[in-house]
Write a structure and sequence with these properties.
- The protein has 460 residues and is mainly α.
- The chain folds into three domains: 100 residues, Fumarase C, Chain B, domain 1, CATH 1.10.275.10; 227 residues, Fumarase C, Chain A, domain 2; 65 residues, Ribonucleotide Reductase Protein R1, domain 1, CATH 1.10.40.
- It has 19 helices and six strands.
- The strands form three sheets. The protein has a two-stranded antiparallel ribbon with strand order 1-2. The protein has a two-stranded parallel sheet with strand order 3-4.
Length: 460
C-alpha cells in the first residue's frame, strides 16, 4: 500500500484509516475501476461464449488470464488507467482502452471491437457500483454491524435479571432490568439488519437510453432482453428492465435509508450509554496508558460513544443526501448521480468507524450493581403504580371502597421520595384485603420488574 498523502482532507484517509480500510477495498476509486474492468471483461467473455457475430469463444486459459487482470489489479494498473484517462478525459473510456490493451497482449485483437459492445458508460458504471456496494455491505459493513449488535445482545442476556430504575422524562419510573433495556436495542437493530440482508441489487444493461437501440439495429434477431437478464444475473445482480440511460438508483435509496435507520438506533444507544455512564450505572474500565484529560488525572471520558455519535451523524447526513439525490435525474440523464456516488464510501466509512467505537466502548464497561441497588432503594415511590393498581382490583372484587385510588397515591408520592417504612405504614392503613396488603408489603423496587427478564429471552 502506498503511503497516504499528507494533504488528505478526510480523517478517514488518515487518523481513522486502519479502521475503515476494509470498506475502501470495495468503495474507493480504485475499487470502482477494478469493478469496471471486471464488468467489461465478463461482457467480452459472455458475448464470445454466445458466439455473437461469429466470434470464437475465448479459450479457458485466456479467460483465466483475463480474469487475472481483475484479481491482480494493483497500483501499476491504477497508474496505467490514470495515464489513459489523462488523454481520454473520460473514466469509462479509459477502462475500455485499458481492456483492449490486455486483449492485444493475449493475442485476442480480433475481438477488440466486442469490448464495450452496445454499452453506454452507465451500463458499466451502474453495474460496477452495484457490485462494489453489494460487496462492501455483505463482506464488511454487515459483519461489523452484526458483531456490535450481537455484543449488545450478549450484554442483555448477561444482565437479564439486573434490576434498573427506569427514568421516563428523566424522572424515576417503573423499574425494569438492564438486560431488558439492552435487549430492546438489539431487537431493533436486528430487524433493520434483516432488511439489509435481503436488499436487492439492481443492474441496468440496455444501451444509451435504456432501449437496446444499437443492439437491435445491428442484430434484431437476438433476444437482447434475455441476454441482459442473463448477464446481470451472472454478475450477481437483478436486471432492471425499465430505465433511462441510468439505472434509477431506487435500490440504493432503500439501502441507504435502512443503513441510516440502523445508524440512528445505534446513535440513540450511544447517547443512552453516555447517560448511563454519567449516572453511574456503568463504570468505565481504566485502559493502561490512557489519559482522560490533559489537566484532570481522575477523568475517564466516554470518548468511544461520543466519537460514535459524531460519526453516525456524519454517515446519516451523507447517506440521506445520497438517497434524496440519486432518485432524481433530469429527463433521460444528468450527471448529478455521478458526482454524488463518489461519496458512497465516505458515508459507509463513518458508519463503520462508529460501529467499531461502540464495539470497543462496550468492552470497556462494567455494570455498577451497587449504584443500581442504591438508586432503587432511594425511590420506593415507584411502587405507587403497583399499589393503586392492586387497590383497583380490590374495588372490582368488592373488597375495597376507596374512591379514586390514583388520586390517593398521587397525594402520597407526587414530587417527593417515599421511604420503605412510610410506604409500609400507608399500605397497612389501606381499606383492602389482608392478602393484598401482604402482597404489597413484600414488593420492593428491586422486584417490581414485571416480565422484564423473560422478555430478554425473546431476542432473536
Amino acid at each position: 500500500m502506498s503511503p497516504l498523502p499528507p494533504q488528505s482532507l478526510s480523517p478517514l484517509d488518515n487518523r481513522y484509516f486502519p479502521v475503515v480500510a476494509p470498506i475502501g477495498e470495495h468503495l474507493s476509486e480504485a475499487a470502482l475501476n477494478r469493478a469496471r474492468v471486471a464488468v467489461e471483461i465478463e461482457w467480452l467473455i459472455y458475448l464470445t461464449n454466445r458466439q455473437v457475430f461469429g466470434a470464437e469463444p475465448i479459450s479457458a486459459e485466456n479467460q483465466a488470464k483475463l480474469r487475472a487482470v481483475v484479481e491482480q489489479f494493483d497500483q501499476d494498473a491504477i497508474d496505467q488507467l490514470a495515464e489513459i484517462e489523462a488523454r481520454t478525459r473520460h473514466d469509462v473510456k479509459a477502462v475500455e482502452y485499458y481492456v483492449r490493451g490486455k486483449l492485444g497482449k493475449l493475442g485476442l485483437s480480433a475481438i477488440e471491437e466486442l469490448t464495450h459492445f452496445g454499452c453506454t458508460s452507465e451500463d458499466i458504471n451502474n453495474t460496477s457500483y452495484a457490485i462494489t456496494i453489494r460487496d462492501a455491505v455483505t463482506k464488511v459493513w454487515l459483519p461489523a454491524a452484526t458483531v456490535v449488535t450481537d455484543a449488545i445482545a450478549e450484554l442483555a442476556v448477561a444482565q437479564r435479571d439486573q434490576p434498573l430504575l427506569s427514568l421516563t422524562h428523566g424522572q424515576p419510573a417503573t423499574p425494569t432490568t438492564l438486560g431488558k433495556e439492552l435487549a430492546v436495542v438489539a431487537h431493533r437493530l436486528r430487524r433493520v439488519l434483516r432488511r439489509i440482508e435481503q436488499q436487492e441489487y439492481l443492474g441496468k444493461w440496455a444501451g444509451a437510453t435504456g432501449n437496446f437501440a444499437a443492439h437491435v439495429a445491428v442484430a434484431p434477431e437476438l433476444d437482447w432482453e434475455t441476454i441482459a437478464d442473463e448477464f446481470t444475473a451472472q454478475l450477481g445482480l437483478t436486471w432492471n428492465p425499465l430505465t433511462t440511460q441510468i439505472e434509477s438508483h431506487d435500490w440504493q435509496a432503500e439501502l441507504y435509508s435502512d443503513i441510516s435507520h440502523f445508524n440512528r438506533i445505534l446513535h440513540n444507544f450511544a447517547s443512552d450509554i453516555w447517560f448511563y455512564i454519567s449516572r453511574g450505572v456503568f463504570k468505565q474500565i481504566p485502559q493502561p496508558g490512557a489519559t482522560g484529560s490533559s489537566t484532570m488525572p481522575h477523568k475517564i471520558n466516554p470518548i468511544r460513544f461520543e466519537n460514535a455519535e459524531s460519526n453516525l451523524e456524519l454517515s446519516c447526513a451523507i447517506l440521506d443526501s445520497l438517497a434524496q439525490t440519486l432518485v432524481t435525474s433530469r429527463l433521460q440523464r444528468d450527471l448529478t448521480d455521478s458526482s454524488s456516488q463518489r461519496n458512497i464510501g465516505v458515508g459507509f466509512g463513518h458508519s463503520l468507524l462508529a460501529i467499531d467505537n461502540v464495539r470497543r466502548g462496550l468492552g470497556e464497561l462494567d455494570v455498577n450493581a451497587d449504584k443500581l441497588h442504591e438508586e432503587l432503594d432511594g425511590n420506593w415511590e415507584v411502587l405507587a403504580e403497583a399499589i393503586q393498581t392492586v387497590i383497583r382490583a380490590e374495588i372490582i372484587a368488592g373488597r375495597s371502597k376507596i374512591e379514586d385510588p390514583y388520586a390517593v397515591l398521587k397525594d402520597l408520592t407526587r414530587g417527593h421520595s417515599v421511604g420503605h417504612a412510610e410506604l409500609i405504614e400507608f399500605v397497612n392503613g389501606l381499606d383492602i384485603g389482608e392478602d393484598a396488603k401482604a402482597h404489597l408489603r413484600e414488593l420492593t423496587p428491586h422486584t417490581y420488574v414485571g416480565r422484564s427478564s423473560a422478555l430478554v429471552d425473546r431476542l432473536q
